[in-house]
Write a structure and sequence with these properties.
The protein has 23 helices and 30 strands. It is an alpha/beta fold. The chain folds into five domains: 141 residues, NAD(P)-binding Rossmann-like Domain (Rossmann fold), CATH 3.40.50.720; 144 residues, Succinyl-CoA synthetase domains (Rossmann fold, 3-Layer(aba) Sandwich), CATH 3.40.50.261; 158 residues, Succinyl-CoA synthetase domains (Rossmann fold, 3-Layer(aba) Sandwich), CATH 3.40.50.261; 64 residues, Dna Ligase, domain 1; 113 residues, ATP-grasp fold, B domain (D-amino Acid Aminotransferase, Chain A, domain 1, 2-Layer Sandwich), CATH 3.30.470. Strand 12, helix 7 and strand 13 form a beta-alpha-beta unit. Helix 12 runs antiparallel to helix 13, helix 13 packs across helix 14 and helix 18 runs antiparallel to helix 19.
Length: 676
Amino acid sequence: MSAGLERLLRPRSIAVVGGGEWCKAVIEQNRKMGFAGEIWPVHPSRDTVADLRAFSSIDALPEAPDATFIGVNRHATIDTVRSLSARGAGGAVCFASGFRETADGVDLQTSLLDAAGDMTLLGPNCYGLVNYLDGALLWPDQHGGNRVESGAAIVTQSSNIAINLTMQTRGLPLAYALTAGNQAQTGLAQIGAALLEDERVSVLGLHVEGVDDIRAFEALAQSSRRLGKPVVVLKVGTSDHARAAALSHTASLAGDEAGANALFQRLGMGQVHTLSEFVETLKLLHVTGPLPSRRIASMSCSGGEAGLIADAGHRHGLEFPPISGEQERTLRSLLGPLVTPSNPLDYHTQIWRDEDALTRTFSTMMDASLALTLLILDFPRGDRCDQADWDRAISACLSARKQTGRNFAVVSSLPENLPEDIASRFIAGGIAPLNGLEEACAAIRCAADTASGAKIRPVLLAAAPDSVSTLSESEAKAELAEFGVSVPKSTSAAIPAQAAAAATEIGFPVVLKGEGFAHKSENGAVVLNLSSAADVEAAAIKMQATGYLVEQQITESIAELLIGIVRDDAHGFVLTMAAGGTLTELLKDRQSLLVPASADTVECALDRLKISQLLDGYRGAPAASRSAIISTIMSLQEYVRANADRLSEVEINPLICGPNHAIAADALISREADND
């Protein structure tokens, strides 16, 4: 962590520049949280701000402040930043908007950076930060948190989302809440890496609208793994522009969302899709850390709840391994003949008020082979109901966790049915309180998907070419063949008669294709199973193309795949594997990785395709050659690495996969034209 960022995040002195209500709120919130350091208002004409003595300028301050909240207009902000930098201040939050996010503010943002020099900036267009560990705030509004000794840190590009997250009543202890604004100087990943260095931070949550520095995110991932602290990402915003103008299926399948998902998966960062999942995942990871697997057990006193958790777990890919014989015998002795021991377990209500029996039941289900054991437990309304019986269940949970030392979570079937005060009791006892079955299952899946100890492979990055053109199919195949991609024997022809002669030389059956079409099948520019020269000539005449490609027809096809790589300016080069041919749109069966991807990673992605069952030999059919498929994908990546600075996209569709081969039946390359 840089010295400036350290001073900004954990200040001993705070300056507040400006006298408006926003600036007064910063001072009041520091008082409310018990900030122990100095607070110095700065205003050119007022004697006091929020009942504190005001200083006329930055130069008039007793010393250089560690952190400064700048609550003046955008032009005055630049002058203030220049004065702070000259004084040797630690860092500043720039609250004002009207910089890069507006048409006339781009130059102002450049001037702001010049004024800052080496001083750390958050923003502009930024609410600032709350440090709940030390009670230090550069925050011009209310917030819902309180002082903690440890907890999760969250960083978001949205100030309002940050406020909302501090208002949660689900028991998540927040160590820090920060907003990044325009990220003119200091980005999400840089802030996140600094927060992870605080030993009191257990997990980092990022609300991401866009990734503008992949290398910084790679560095954050390395820090996360080095420190053993997971990162959870809520990525919002997808792009349709690539799909609207796509030449290939790859571009339409990939887009912004696939690139972002592939990036965060590569970095070992857990991904969630809603704010509720975000909060529950951070809470789970704060208590348990990353989970070693998706193997869980569940307990409830209702068969209905057992069915709901089984269904929710299935949707999120969780596993419910059967209980052991020893567990079954112990549970039968505890629960009686009316209960069928299983996982999920419905333990009925006979032992509901027996704290010892509850403790022993919970402990028995907490097997060492599991990543997590769940107890589904909804609490009564405190304003209308008596909670006395539930107190016994709470005590049994805490005792079982203490006895076993294993990962344990209490889950309410409805999010609102686990009050904040009870959630805090569970966290203090090492139990994760999770609000809502669906949210809990999403959190478990995410916690099991966070980083392993593997080293991060840098993503392939290259500047985009100024302009691109599309190669003919024959040109594309020739280029790929040089990198080891298998292609059919073929000959180009200008007129139908030449196509017929070429077919005779190649040998029948052949495929006839019309040149000049991006999507040949949709335009009637592909004819299969031609078995004579006359058939070829007749098909060519009917096609009326500007040129023809005659190819050997590949037999012994077990399955067809699409293999493509498309440039994503935000995330690098996205490698997409999908069901190929006519199944591409029908099945929507695809997996995306970032280049370069290892052979092992590619094989795992192939395993996740629905069509992988065909590749492996479905219902006794022969299997396709996995080694040939993977070799083709690795060769395609080598082509991309060699041409990265001039490539837009490359696609093989279909890749015909047989028992001993993987052959590119069609190929498309869009790249910068050769300079002849």
